[in-house]
User: Which sequence fits this backbone?
């Protein structure tokens, strides 16, 4: 009788204690009391935020040569620019939980989108390298806090639909990544051939994301109907009796699950950054034309759009996500083996395998939402996992480039990536256990 009950629903029953914040009604959880219109606004806001989480990065790559020429940017500075996303995600993502506790996650997400919009709008106006780097950092800081708080928003507003809503915004994130990579150059050409116009255009998408979250913030701060509920002594402002944690906040750094999640996030991010940065060059060195190499990369990225919607729904119904970790990792190992043995002859097969493997990102986002019982726990875990993971991912693309330069081929870099993928599988199996950080594992 219990077999048909999804793990996602079982998770909902055991996660009724969620810490409140200032924007939640005092009488119940946000998702339970929200009107249908408010929930629709949250869904629209999730989609629009996810669409904005990567264009600042993926839209710059195709225009990097023009940006360097226009600003007189040195190769060293260009290298710094390509490593900025992981560094900013690690540094700024760590402050997101504290900001969310003080101002509420909705307000912080809204401020994050404002920073993204401002950074993308001001970056094309830069007259020198320094201003370009600063405005890029502003946009990346907004992305960082939004990255961390997306699982919190999902847990808060849709506690019984963690998998499906994570899938929705993961799919939107993949769509935004692919769209920016594919459309920035054509958009720049249509707007007069200026790289400034091509990059600045994405600020419009950021401005659109401000609209639903402004409405959600205003609506969620209205007094809830019915008699007020007085929270117990010691409860945080805006918390209800059900929302008040039963004990002290979990010590995330002492949790083996948290460390396993952080390592899993870091290795999957390494694989993704290496794919984005080096896969086209591998194909070009194998004799394929530049246009075909770019198309193959687009296929790899685009494959994540449908899979990012389906995979979290499957993961949320499993008591242990380890089997999914293994399947994705084996696809990655198969892709690397193919690139070693026959990069040109089997190119389409290898990009399909790598595209599946790169869907470890929506999987780890889903696991973050499932490995903590409270919204505060999810916020802290998300910040820890993403900050730790992005720090782990910084050396990977640099090591791949250094190995290629020193050996003159791709065998050594591919061997490195296969080794890291093996470790990714091992830590991912540990992270996929049916544990919560509050269990003190």
Assistant:
């Amino acid at each position: 009788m219990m077999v048909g009950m999804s793990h996602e629903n079982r998770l909902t029953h055991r996660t009724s204690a969620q810490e409140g914040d200032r924007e939640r009604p005092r009488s119940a959880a946000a998702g339970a009391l929200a009107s249908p219109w408010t929930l629709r606004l949250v869904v629209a806001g999730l989609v629009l935020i996810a669409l904005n989480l990567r264009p600042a990065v993926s839209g710059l790559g195709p225009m990097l040569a023009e940006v360097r020429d226009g600003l007189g940017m040195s190769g060293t500075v260009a290298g710094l620019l390509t490593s900025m996303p992981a560094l900013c995600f690690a540094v700024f993502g760590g402050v997101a939980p504290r900001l969310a506790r003080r101002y509420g996650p909705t307000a912080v997400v809204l401020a994050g989108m404002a920073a993204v919009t401002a950074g993308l709008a001001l970056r094309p106006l830069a007259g020198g390298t320094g201003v370009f780097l600063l405005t890029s950092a502003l946009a990346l800081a907004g992305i960082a806090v939004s990255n961390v708080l997306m699982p919190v928003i999902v847990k808060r507003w849709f506690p019984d639909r963690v998998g499906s809503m994570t899938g929705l915004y993961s799919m939107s994130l993949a769509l935004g990544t692919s769209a920016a990579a594919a459309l920035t150059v054509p958009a720049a050409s249509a707007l007069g051939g200026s790289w400034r116009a091509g990059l600045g255009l994405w600020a419009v998408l950021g401005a659109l994301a401000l609209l639903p979250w402004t409405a959600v913030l205003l609506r969620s701060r209205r007094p809830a109907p019915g008699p007020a509920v007085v929270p117990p002594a010691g409860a945080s402002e805006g918390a209800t009796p059900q929302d008040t944690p039963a004990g002290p906040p979990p010590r995330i750094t002492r949790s083996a699950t948290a460390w396993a999640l952080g390592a899993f996030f870091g290795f999957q991010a390494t694989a993704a950054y290496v794919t984005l940065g080096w896969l086209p060059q591998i194909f070009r060195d194998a004799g394929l034309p530049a246009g075909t190499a770019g198309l193959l990369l687009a296929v790899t990225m685009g494959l994540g759009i449908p899979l990012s919607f389906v995979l979290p729904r499957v993961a949320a119904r499993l008591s242990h996500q380890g089997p999914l970790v293994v399947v994705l990792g084996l696809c990655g190992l198969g892709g690397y083996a193919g690139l070693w043995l026959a990069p040109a002859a089997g190119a389409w097969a290898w990009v399909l395998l790598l595209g599946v493997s790169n869907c470890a990102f929506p999987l780890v986002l889903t696991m973050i939402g499932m490995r903590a019982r409270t919204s505060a726990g999810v916020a802290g875990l998300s910040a820890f996992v993403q900050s730790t993971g992005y720090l782990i991912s910084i050396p990977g693309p640099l090591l791949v480039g250094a190995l290629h330069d020193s050996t003159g081929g791709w065998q050594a870099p591919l061997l490195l990536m296969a080794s890291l993928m093996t470790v990714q599988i091992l830590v991912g199996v540990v992270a996929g256990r049916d544990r919560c950080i509050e269990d003190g594992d």
In short: Residues 256-285 form the longest helix (30 residues). The CA atoms of residues 11 and 370 lie 7 Å apart. The chain has 21 helices and no strands.
